[in-house]
Design goal:
Blueprint (H helix, E strand, L loop, with lengths): L8 E4 L4 H13 L6 E4 L3 H9 L10 E4 L7 E4 H12 L14 H19 L16 E2 L1
Protein name: Thiol-disulfide oxidoreductase
Organism: Mycolicibacter terrae
InterPro entries: DCC1-like, DCC_oxidoreductase
Length: 140
Amino acid sequence: MTNAHAAPVLLYDGVCGVCNRSVQTILRHDRRGTLRFAALDSDFARAVIERHPDLQGIDSMVFVDDPGQPGEQVSVRSAGALKVVRYLGGPFRLLLAARIIPAGIRDRLYDRFAAVRYRIGGKHDTCPVPAPEVRARFLG
């Protein structure tokens, strides 16, 4: 695989309104333009989950470093969110201060928000189709 194929991938809940708005925000601020995206119910995500059985039934964002490579690593919940923040850089890096909060507490907060995300941001019937100019960054 080429390096472009090993670009990081963010797995997300494709029908979640909050998640879709988050992806749109990431796209607007992604200066490198290399982060790719895949819905949790996509073939790509299913393959990642098959390689990482501990992800079975995951209901969280998953940041995948070096996808499909021998060194592939996955970060979930608050660790995945912090990976996105680190990837974006710039002023978003200020959010990395959240690392001082123990991971267990961060993940409990993440889980509480995730439990109400459909009430906050709504739920789509299907995963929205990305805009043509970014469609190539979405994996099926």
